[in-house]
Amino acid sequence: MHLSSGFQVIGLTGLPEFSLGDDVALAIVRAAEQAGGLCTDDLLVVAQKIISKVEGRKVRLTDVKPSALAQKYAKICEKDPRFVELVLQESESVEVVRPGHLIVTTKHGITCANAGIDTSNVEGDTETVLLLPQDPDTSARRLLDGIAKLTGKKVGVIISDTHGRTLREGQVNVAIGAAGVQLFRDYRGLKDSKGYTLRVKLISVADEIAAAAELVIGQAQERIPVAIVRGLRILSAQAISSRELNMSREKWFFKPELGPELRSFPVPK
User: Is this model's pTM higher than 0.85 or not?
Assistant: First the structure.
């Protein structure tokens, strides 16, 4: 159960400014060669921005026509109606609409602000936004397979994004897609050092790895969208889904106190 007495986080520099159709696997392998090459059992944490860019998830707001519902919510949350329309299109349900806040549950099952749609580090203007990958797990698997084909190395891949946390200030990187890696470290049913049987200790290793990688990936001008995490040895050949990281609505302890205009509801299709 003990993972490691230590590990490294190595930021990859020299990666290009990615655009539609670029070969991310090849670019990562070449950058890794400059840092000594990839090793078997390495974990790659990849910022979702580059995956979204190569998969064509960039949208110009000038091409978006807001619906009546988007215009209604835009007035409440004080956001661009075109932006709100994209949030609704990417969502299964709306949870909170208040001044400055639009919290939804995405089609991926992730509950977050603005459906994870990003306006930073896109085009340098306010008219271009970046949507999350349509299927981050498939994106991670495609990247893992591409790296294995190029190098013969068995690695794991986590696609990360920066999210806020309930009742905590600040944001952290979390895993929104994964392939070839264990998502959890399960202590339930085991005994601690005093003989107590642990009942609820299910550690989200994937999120912890994503958060650790962010310390070198950064958020501003670092230009390090990929990090190697080395030394943990938690690869897995089992099929996984990052949806397992999303808490089901039935388990929510804190639920939005919504008025009749702000009630949690499925987004009309």
Answer: yes
